């Protein structure tokens, strides 16, 4: 039986940051489930940079069904966790069920991949203190306030925590995450 990977997300997550790891991990032979506040059709967004804008723009993205509600997740059934970015982490960090899930992964030192605004979730459970991370560059002060050492790099690996800045960094992010996964939770 293949190892299971959990992706936690919600509406307004960045489409590519959910679907790229979902498909890449399935391609490797992992069973991947998407959990959200409720079982429903999620509405993702596309963030891009356009000339004349000081920050990214947001457009409607793909829709995708959540396999599980956070309240249905048994973290012990999963070998690793993926935390996509987008706007979803801004409100998801307030969800007590999700915070329990996140804490379980960090307490058991299971592999965690986070990208973009995803580290806002790990900061909400004090999971970044003393760690090296990267994130969307505008979150540098947030990462420092959470006790992390921020590095503006394509990917930063700190033990079983693999972080990346934004969707153009996907290949490096998944390459390093798969290195950690193959060591800690190989496909059988």
TrEMBL record:
<dbReference type="InterPro" id="IPR006286">
    <property type="entry name" value="C56_PfpI-like"/>
</dbReference>
<keyword id="KW-0378">Hydrolase</keyword>
<dbReference type="GO" id="GO:0006508">
    <property type="term" value="P:proteolysis"/>
</dbReference>
<dbReference type="Pfam" id="PF01965">
    <property type="entry name" value="DJ-1_PfpI"/>
</dbReference>
<dbReference type="InterPro" id="IPR029062">
    <property type="entry name" value="Class_I_gatase-like"/>
</dbReference>
<feature type="domain" description="DJ-1/PfpI">
    <location>
        <begin position="4"/>
        <end position="178"/>
    </location>
</feature>
<protein>
    <submittedName>
        <fullName>Protease</fullName>
    </submittedName>
</protein>
<comment type="similarity">
    <text>Belongs to the peptidase C56 family.</text>
</comment>
<keyword id="KW-0645">Protease</keyword>
<dbReference type="InterPro" id="IPR002818">
    <property type="entry name" value="DJ-1/PfpI"/>
</dbReference>
<dbReference type="GO" id="GO:0008233">
    <property type="term" value="F:peptidase activity"/>
</dbReference>
């Amino acid at each position: 039986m293949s190892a299971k990977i959990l992706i936690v997300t919600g509406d307004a997550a960045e489409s590519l940051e959910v679907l790229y790891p979902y498909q890449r991990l399935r391609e490797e032979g992992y069973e991947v489930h998407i959990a959200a506040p409720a079982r429903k059709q999620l509405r993702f967004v596309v963030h891009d940079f356009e000339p004349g804008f000081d920050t990214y723009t947001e457009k409607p993205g793909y829709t995708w069904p959540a396999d599980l509600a956070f309240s249905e997740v048994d973290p012990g059934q999963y070998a690793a966790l993926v935390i996509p970015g987008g706007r979803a982490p801004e409100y998801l960090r307030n969800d007590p069920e999700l915070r329990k899930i996140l804490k379980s992964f960090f307490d058991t030192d299971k592999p965690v991949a986070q990208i973009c605004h995803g580290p806002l979730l790990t900061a909400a459970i004090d999971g970044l203190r003393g760690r090296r991370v990267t994130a969307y560059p505008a979150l540098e002060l947030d990462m420092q306030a959470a006790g992390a050492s921020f590095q503006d790099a394509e990917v930063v690996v700190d033990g079983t925590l693999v972080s990346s800045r934004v969707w153009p960094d996907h290949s490096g992010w998944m390459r390093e995450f798969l290195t950690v996964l193959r060591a800690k939770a190989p496909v059988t």
